[in-house]
Design brief:
It is a single chain. The protein is an all-alpha fold. It contains two helices and no strands. The mean pLDDT is 80.
Length: 69
Amino acid sequence: MAALYVMIPAAMALVALAIWFFFWAVDSGQFDDLDSPAHSILFDDTDPVVEQDEAPPPGATNPDEPPHA
């Protein structure tokens, strides 16, 4: 029975904190735009990068390679 004297005020404080947090979120604009984040995942942020081959064109010399004798 003594635990109820602690648990009931603790539960009421937790509920009050949750209500305060909810109203703070509403006032700060957390719930203003609920559709844009859901749609933004469908679109790319940047253009795709075209990957180029790392191999030099035929006949090109590599400056890091020693000359042939």
